[in-house]
Amino acid sequence: MSQLPITAFVPTLALRNKRFNLFHKRVLSGCTKVRMEEKDNSKQQHRIVQSNIFNQQVENFLRPIPEAVQQRMEKIAAELLLEPQDKLMDVGCGTGAMIPFLHKYVPLSQIFLCDCSEAMLEEAKKRFPECPAIYSDFLELEKEHGNWDKLLFNAVFGNFIDQKAVLGVAYNVLKENGKILVSHPMGRSFVRQLHDKDPQMVPHLLPNQQEWQQLLKGMNMSLEYYCDESQLYIARLSK
Ligand SMILES: C[S@@+](CC[C@H](N)C(=O)[O-])C[C@H]1O[C@@H](n2cnc3c(N)ncnc32)[C@H](O)[C@@H]1O
């Protein structure tokens, strides 16, 4: 699956839509690239900042993960309520830290990697070649790109410039009754620290329950599970 040509992944899209001419000069081996071309310049700038930052971070993300953090990552994976047939996207997958935990529930071929940092995605793909990979800004995905059962945003939701827009895209690419999990294995206060230190990298905090209600206003999605412990944040939304 991961080695299929791009046109096999989105057969009609490549033909129909010039904007999504998925062929490109530097094809990441085995990855589908969605052309990252934003109408909104501020979003494009932000995506470039993100990829520049994270292209330099691969080594840091490959360091061994402490046992206690791994246990919290187990909990995060469990809260996705994965079924064996589910098709899942790990949005902002980085080097694929969550994949071993997700793979306990679904085959690797059903876990799609997505990242806008070339270096991060390349590393994730090297570690998990069976996972299909999409090199894209998540905000560039459209309904036609596929219908996922579950979307995971682990340690990335604060990095997006427009969280409401992220939810709009997520809604579009999710199947009916699909679920979104927004999580962080270090908790909300850790994300606040990152934000205070570098608001360009992390422009937003993780929403509290009230803020979720605001974000979800006018959207056909609901918050069905919320956990805000000192070192664990999980919010599960249902379409
Ligand atoms: C803090 S890392 C988290 C990586 C991984 N989820 C984990 O748990 O280790 C954030 C990742 O999200 C990616 N990212 C940030 N904004 C993104 C966007 N708009 N679309 C896709 N990926 C994005 C970054 O390139 C980076 O690899």
TrEMBL record:
Residues 84-216 form the Methyltransferase domain. Pfam families: Methyltransf_31. InterPro entries: Methyltranfer_dom, SAM-dependent_MTases_sf. This is Methyltransferase domain-containing protein. The lineage of its organism: Eukaryota, Rhodophyta, Bangiophyceae, Galdieriales, Galdieriaceae.
